Amino acid sequence: MVPIERAYARVAWCYDELAQLYSLGRIGRAKRDHLGALAPGDRVLYAGAGRGAEAVQAARLGARVTCLDRTEAMLVRLRRSAARAGVTLQVQRADVRDPAATEAYDGVVANFFLNVFTPPELSGLASRLIGSLRPGGFLAVADFARPSGGAWARAVQHASYRLADAAGRVLGLAPWQPLHDYARFGKDSGLRLERRRSFPAWRGGPPLYEAFLWRR
Questions:
Q1: How far, CA to CA in Å, does 80 sit from each of 14, 87, 89, 101?
Q2: How far is Cα 49 from Cα 53, in angstroms, rounded to an integer?
Q3: Closest CA relative to residue 214, chosen from 187, 176, 180
Q4: What is the pLDDT of residue 175?
Q5: What mean pLDDT is reported for the chain?
Q6: CB distance 146 to 181 below 8 Å
Q7: Does residue 139 contact residue 216 with C-beta atoms inside 8 Å?
């Protein structure tokens, strides 16, 4: 099996574009949902930042941004985007699960990232990410919506996720596993849900993606 960093490096040049095309822009909107919670000067950590378009936008809004990712090819493109936008980011090649110096952030963002971890791994990672938040800070997560509603809605949601999941497995980006229950994740983590926003397949249709924002 190809190491996951190498798999992501191979698609770094087109990863965001394919996601936008596949989702008709909904993934990008879900990733940007947290930006309204930012205030100038906020310290924000982007875990699994990838090419980090939303992190660059956060910096343009005046946030002090730190980005972590394991794939250098993604971070190269992130640094280029930041340079073109004229903003400064702290960009580090690192695994968010590794021990690191304790930081106090006003916000932690993990977009389309947590579902590559198994439930036991997620539990440990959640403790690390939430532990990085100052009191009153926010945790923002955007990801595929967990199937819900009637049989027809669930079938649409299931098909959308499985198509993306199959492509990810073929490319070696992530192993198959069920979607995490983020609503329960936030509750079990002792966070207060401030906002939950859905991004449907069409107006009035079943949600394909969701963005959560909790407060510590």
A1: 15, 10, 11, 27
A2: 9
A3: 187
A4: 66
A5: 91
A6: yes
A7: yes
Residue 136: partners with Cβ closer than 8 Å, 6 or more residues away: 215, 216
- Whole-model pTM: value is 0.93
CA atoms of 209 and 70, how far apart (whole Å): 24
Question: Which CATH code of 3.40.50.150, 1.10.3720.10, 3.40.50.2000, 3.40.50.300 fits the domain covering 4-215?
Answer: 3.40.50.150
User: How would residue 102 be classed by pLDDT, with cut points 50, 70 and 90?
Assistant: low
Do 137 and 106 meet the contact criterion of CB atoms below 8 Å apart?
yes
Both tokens of 17, joined, read 């574009």
**Tokens read off for 78:** 């992130």
Assign 31 a pLDDT band (cuts: 50, 70, 90): very high
Write down the pLDDT at residue 25: 95
**Residue 133 main-chain phi, psi, to 5 deg:** -90, 140
Q: From its phi and psi, is residue 174 left (phi > 0), alpha (psi between -120 and 50) or beta?
A: beta
